[in-house]
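Predict structure. Input: CRP/FNR family cyclic AMP-dependent transcriptional regulator, 239 residues.
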Amino acid sequence: MNDAMSLINELHSEPREYLNNYLANAPKWLLEAFKIVNLKKGTTFIHENETVDTIYILVEGVVKATDYRVQEIAYDYTRFYPVEVFGAMEFLMGFELYRTTLVTETDCRFLCVSKDQFSRWMLSDIHAVLEQVKAMGVYLLEQVRKERLFLFLQGSDRLFLLFMEIYRKSSHRGTCRIQLARKDLSNSTGLCIKTVNRCVSQMEEKGYISREGRTIIIDEEQYRRIKAVVAEKIDENEI
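Output follows.
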C-alpha cells in the first residue's frame, strides 16, 4: 500500500469514504504519483493569476479563499473543509491561471499531483469527472446563495450566518470552537472591526455565544438559537 492510500485509510469516515469513491477507478500510476504535503497555518499556497501547475486535495484542516480585487481590501469569501480539490475547477473550465488566492487557516494536509497527471486521469475516468462536476456545482450554488443573502443582511445577522456555516462544518460532539481574530471576522463579513467587536459583545451578553479568551464557543443549544434568529429574516429553505 502506497503512502497516499495509507493516509486515506487513516482519515475520519466521511473524508475517507468520499476519497474512496472519488478515486474508485484511479489507476495505480496516479495513486503512486500523489505526494503528501503538510502546510502550516497562514500559508498562501495558491495565488490568483498564477499558472495552474498543481492540484491540491485537502484531506485535513481548513482553507480560506481571499479576494483582493476591490481596492485591495481582503474579503475572505468562503472556507473549505475536507475533502476539497483545488485546481480542478480551473482545469474543467479550461483556465490556465488560478482564479483565487487560497490560504491555510489551520495546519493542513494535502494530497498533491501535477496538473498534467490530473488531466490525464480525468480525461479517462468519467466517474471522477462526474463527481468533480457535482462537487463544483454544489459549491458554486452555495456560494451564490450566500452572497445574495449578504446583500440584504447587516451587522450581527452576517455574523450569525457565518457562525452557522462554521458550526455546521466544524462542530465536534455538538460544540464548535471558532478561533478567528476580529480581523478575520471582518474580512469574512465585510463589516468593520468596530462593528464586529460590538456585535460579538452583544451576542455574548445575550447568550448566543460563549468565549474562552479569544476563542468563540457555540454549543448545540446556542446554534439552535442563532438559527432561529436567522430564520426570522431568511426563508428557512435558505438556511
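The chain has a mean pLDDT of 93.
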